[in-house]
Design a protein that fits this description.
By secondary structure, the chain is of the alpha/beta class. The chain contains 6 helices and 5 strands. It has a 5-stranded parallel sheet, with helices on both faces.
Length: 156
Protein backbone atom coordinates (compact mmCIF):
# COMPACT_ATOMS: atom_id res chain seq x y z
CA UNK A 1 0.00 0.00 0.00
CA UNK A 2 2.70 2.52 1.05
CA UNK A 3 6.40 2.29 0.27
CA UNK A 4 7.50 5.71 1.44
CA UNK A 5 5.87 7.84 4.14
CA UNK A 6 6.94 11.39 5.04
CA UNK A 7 6.11 13.02 8.36
CA UNK A 8 7.20 16.31 9.87
CA UNK A 9 8.24 17.09 13.40
CA UNK A 10 9.27 20.10 15.40
CA UNK A 11 9.66 18.12 18.60
CA UNK A 12 6.28 19.18 19.99
CA UNK A 13 3.76 16.81 21.55
CA UNK A 14 1.39 17.51 18.67
CA UNK A 15 4.04 16.53 16.11
CA UNK A 16 4.86 13.42 18.15
CA UNK A 17 1.28 12.23 17.74
CA UNK A 18 1.55 12.62 13.95
CA UNK A 19 4.90 10.77 13.98
CA UNK A 20 3.30 7.92 15.95
CA UNK A 21 0.54 7.57 13.37
CA UNK A 22 3.04 7.66 10.51
CA UNK A 23 5.28 5.09 12.22
CA UNK A 24 2.32 2.77 12.83
CA UNK A 25 1.36 2.96 9.16
CA UNK A 26 4.98 2.39 8.12
CA UNK A 27 5.18 -0.67 10.37
CA UNK A 28 1.95 -2.10 8.93
CA UNK A 29 3.01 -1.58 5.33
CA UNK A 30 6.80 -2.10 5.62
CA UNK A 31 7.27 1.43 4.30
CA UNK A 32 10.32 3.60 4.83
CA UNK A 33 9.52 6.48 7.17
CA UNK A 34 11.10 9.85 6.32
CA UNK A 35 11.08 12.20 9.32
CA UNK A 36 11.50 15.85 8.33
CA UNK A 37 12.50 18.87 10.39
CA UNK A 38 12.09 22.09 8.41
CA UNK A 39 13.61 25.27 9.77
CA UNK A 40 14.02 28.73 8.38
CA UNK A 41 17.70 29.71 8.51
CA UNK A 42 18.73 33.07 9.92
CA UNK A 43 19.70 35.28 7.01
CA UNK A 44 22.75 37.55 7.18
CA UNK A 45 20.72 40.51 5.90
CA UNK A 46 18.15 40.13 8.66
CA UNK A 47 20.85 39.92 11.32
CA UNK A 48 22.62 42.97 9.90
CA UNK A 49 19.38 44.97 9.82
CA UNK A 50 18.64 44.00 13.42
CA UNK A 51 22.18 44.98 14.48
CA UNK A 52 21.75 48.38 12.87
CA UNK A 53 18.82 49.04 15.20
CA UNK A 54 20.83 48.19 18.29
CA UNK A 55 20.25 44.45 18.55
CA UNK A 56 23.31 42.41 19.51
CA UNK A 57 25.52 41.15 16.71
CA UNK A 58 25.21 37.40 16.22
CA UNK A 59 27.30 34.81 14.42
CA UNK A 60 24.79 33.78 11.74
CA UNK A 61 26.72 30.65 10.74
CA UNK A 62 26.90 29.47 14.36
CA UNK A 63 23.19 30.12 14.91
CA UNK A 64 22.28 28.17 11.74
CA UNK A 65 24.60 25.30 12.77
CA UNK A 66 22.85 25.21 16.16
CA UNK A 67 19.45 25.11 14.47
CA UNK A 68 20.59 22.20 12.27
CA UNK A 69 21.97 20.30 15.29
CA UNK A 70 18.68 20.81 17.13
CA UNK A 71 16.84 19.50 14.06
CA UNK A 72 19.01 16.38 13.97
CA UNK A 73 18.35 15.75 17.67
CA UNK A 74 14.59 16.22 17.29
CA UNK A 75 14.51 13.87 14.28
CA UNK A 76 16.67 11.24 15.96
CA UNK A 77 14.44 11.30 19.05
CA UNK A 78 11.37 10.73 16.86
CA UNK A 79 13.22 8.11 14.80
CA UNK A 80 14.25 6.11 17.88
CA UNK A 81 10.60 5.39 18.71
CA UNK A 82 9.86 4.28 15.14
CA UNK A 83 13.00 2.11 14.95
CA UNK A 84 11.93 0.28 18.13
CA UNK A 85 8.83 -0.76 16.15
CA UNK A 86 11.05 -2.18 13.40
CA UNK A 87 10.48 0.70 10.98
CA UNK A 88 13.21 1.72 8.53
CA UNK A 89 13.74 5.45 9.11
CA UNK A 90 15.58 8.24 7.32
CA UNK A 91 15.84 11.75 8.78
CA UNK A 92 15.93 14.99 6.83
CA UNK A 93 16.85 18.38 8.30
CA UNK A 94 15.96 20.96 5.67
CA UNK A 95 16.76 24.68 5.78
CA UNK A 96 13.39 25.87 4.50
CA UNK A 97 9.89 26.79 5.56
CA UNK A 98 8.51 23.64 7.27
CA UNK A 99 5.68 23.17 4.74
CA UNK A 100 8.06 23.62 1.82
CA UNK A 101 10.50 21.18 3.44
CA UNK A 102 7.79 18.51 3.77
CA UNK A 103 6.58 18.90 0.19
CA UNK A 104 10.16 18.97 -1.10
CA UNK A 105 11.16 15.77 0.69
CA UNK A 106 7.92 14.07 -0.40
CA UNK A 107 8.75 14.92 -4.02
CA UNK A 108 12.42 13.94 -3.62
CA UNK A 109 11.71 10.48 -2.19
CA UNK A 110 8.60 9.77 -4.25
CA UNK A 111 6.42 9.51 -1.17
CA UNK A 112 3.11 7.67 -1.28
CA UNK A 113 1.83 9.42 1.86
CA UNK A 114 2.59 12.61 3.74
CA UNK A 115 1.42 12.81 7.37
CA UNK A 116 0.95 16.05 9.31
CA UNK A 117 -0.79 17.01 12.52
CA UNK A 118 -3.66 19.48 12.49
CA UNK A 119 -2.02 21.92 14.90
CA UNK A 120 -2.40 25.45 13.57
CA UNK A 121 -5.46 24.71 11.46
CA UNK A 122 -7.99 26.43 13.72
CA UNK A 123 -8.71 30.01 14.67
CA UNK A 124 -8.47 33.25 12.77
CA UNK A 125 -4.65 33.14 12.54
CA UNK A 126 -4.77 30.40 9.89
CA UNK A 127 -6.49 32.79 7.49
CA UNK A 128 -3.87 35.50 7.97
CA UNK A 129 -0.68 33.51 8.50
CA UNK A 130 -1.59 30.12 7.09
CA UNK A 131 -0.38 26.93 8.69
CA UNK A 132 1.88 24.03 7.82
CA UNK A 133 -1.01 21.55 7.38
CA UNK A 134 -2.98 24.04 5.30
CA UNK A 135 -0.06 24.88 3.01
CA UNK A 136 0.89 21.22 2.64
CA UNK A 137 -2.70 20.32 1.75
CA UNK A 138 -2.55 22.71 -1.21
CA UNK A 139 0.84 21.55 -2.53
CA UNK A 140 1.14 17.91 -1.51
CA UNK A 141 2.42 15.68 -4.34
CA UNK A 142 0.90 12.49 -2.88
CA UNK A 143 -1.80 11.21 -0.52
CA UNK A 144 -2.12 13.28 2.64
CA UNK A 145 -3.18 12.26 6.14
CA UNK A 146 -3.96 15.07 8.57
CA UNK A 147 -3.95 13.61 12.09
CA UNK A 148 -6.20 15.13 14.76
CA UNK A 149 -3.66 15.88 17.49
CA UNK A 150 -5.80 18.09 19.72
CA UNK A 151 -6.63 15.53 22.41
CA UNK A 152 -4.17 12.76 21.69
CA UNK A 153 -1.24 12.03 23.96
CA UNK A 154 2.06 10.88 22.47
CA UNK A 155 3.75 7.75 23.76
CA UNK A 156 6.82 8.31 25.87
Amino acid sequence: MFNSIVVGTDGSESASVAVQHAAALAALTSATLHIVYGCRPVMLGSAAMAASTGAPVIDVEQVNRSIAVEGEQVCEHAASHARREGVQVEVHVVAADPADALVGVAEEVGADLLVVGNRGMSGARRFVLGSVPNKVSHHCPCNLLIVDTRNATPAK
